[in-house]
Amino acid sequence: MHKAPRGTFDILPEEHSYWKYVEEKAALLCQLYGYQPLTMPIFEDARLFTRAVGGNTDIVDKEMYVFQDKGGQELALRPEGTAPVCRAYLEHGFYNLTQPVKLYYLGPAFRYERPQAGRYRQHHQFGFEALGEADPVMDAEVIEMAWRFFLSLGLSGVHIQLNSIGCKLCRPGYLDVLKEHYSGHADSLCPDCKGRSVRNPLRLLDCKKDHCKGTAETAPKATDYLCDDCQSHFETVRVYLGTLDIPFHLDHRLVRGLDYYTRTVFEVEPQEQGGQSSLGGGGRYDDLIEALGGRPTPAVGFATGLERIVLNLKRQGVDVPPLPSPVAFIACLGQEAKLEAVKLASELRKAGLGTVMATGDRSLKAQMRQADSANSSYTIILGAEEVRNQSAVLRNMGSGEQQTVPLAELIRVLKSR
Questions:
Q1: How would you class 388 by CB atoms within 10 Å of its CB: exposed for 0-12, middle for 13-18, buried for 19 or more?
Q2: CA angle, corner 366, sides to 360 and 368, nearest 5?
Q3: In what helix (H) or strand (E) does residue 382 lie, and over which residues does it extend?
Q4: What is the distance of C-alpha 30 from the center of its chain?
Q5: Quick one: average pLDDT of 49-57?
Q6: Delimiting residues of CATH 3.40.50.800 domain(s) in the chain
Q7: Chain centroid to CA 108: how far?
Q8: What 8-state DSSP symbol labels residue 186?
Q9: Could you name the CATH architecture of 328-410?
């Protein structure tokens, strides 16, 4: 018996109400802030992510799904959305448009990692990016969007973690003092952190292992080593967030897991905290487009996983609107009535009324059970007598009341209700 591959799952019909709810809130949010939709390929040239995400990250080193096509080109299933957005920005000449260019995306991403609650090998990301503007007001806007998005979903207890990790001018000096701090704790580091201390020391601060957290807590803070420009930028971001009444907590251990981030980084945490609790995150990546072959282009963005959101909606008991149910279910008795039912179902659907029709030769009692299962608002009953009189019995499934209605009046009656 075949099963879905490990780390993947089917979104069953009863689950789609959550997904539709989240996707509609996402699209509405982006419309309010002037972000336009962008759909990228599911696979890209693997070198895009090696250059953008960084060769010293877990995503590139361990988690990418890489394969060769029949032409010998090395491709990768998309592990994240920002790099493809930047590729599209360059490929389609968006740099010639009025800046910033504001884009958002919804779609699957793929990472080969250990499946756990809210984290899967195929997951779905919602992200938005503002490209071409260095003004810290854009950092504040992106953070506000993330904040408002989760509030609009009805999630409570959500809070913002904020930090600045500097730029390519001031970060090297900070990394020197960070490595010096960790050199005195080398023996107590976990195996992953021992590798990070050489390849990517900034990620040492992000380790979730208990025996590494203490070392990270006493580590020097990146904000104490910012250059004047980065310091001014970060202070201005905080002023804007205060103006917007967006609560945030400064977290000097927050660094994010991708190499392209500069200056502002942030994460959104849910009510229940934990090693894998983050609802989403983002920040500024002013050097990424230049690294991909473009001219220097400041940018800032955010991304979140839909699976993690749905998990938290369920944990907090947030009620989401159900998917639309059919307006009518047609029950029929006899072949003559069935022919009339086929015609009637088509007419109702053309009129925009969702309709399900009974199939097979079940009894009326069995067909009524099917109508209950379909959760239809009304059942239309057709028998030999109704066909002769060109009428139908219309039953309100909520109240149980029923009346005889001429077929010519049926659409009008249903629409009026």
A1: exposed
A2: 110
A3: strand 378-382
A4: 13
A5: 75
A6: 328-410
A7: 9
A8: G
A9: 3-Layer(aba) Sandwich (3.40)
Rounded CA-CA distance 234/271 in Å is: 26
Q: What residue has token string 């003092």?
A: 177
Superfamily of structural domain 13-170+226-315: Bira Bifunctional Protein; Domain 2 (3.30.930.10)
Is residue 286 within 8 Å of 296, Cβ to Cβ? yes
Average pLDDT over residues 61-78: 90
pLDDT digit string (tens) for 125-157? Answer: 999 999 999 999 999 999 999 999 999 999 998
Predicted structure pTM score: 0.89
Q: What is the mean pLDDT of the chain?
A: 90
SS3 content of the chain, % helix, strand, coil (to 5): 45, 20, 35
Q: Give the Å distances, CA to CA, from 79 to 53, 110, 301, 305, 353.
A: 10, 5, 16, 12, 41
Q: In what order do the strands lie in the sheet with 43-45?
A: 43-45, 74-77, 66-68
Pick from 337, 320, 319, 330: nearest CA to 377: 330
The dihedral through the CA atoms of 81, 84, 90, 93 has a sign that is negative
Q: What is the secondary structure of 293-308 as a DSSP string?
A: TS----EEEEEEEHHH
The residue count for the chain: 417
- In the chain, CATH 3.30.930.10 covers 13-170+226-315
Distance separating alpha carbons of residues 191 and 207, to the nearest angstrom? 11
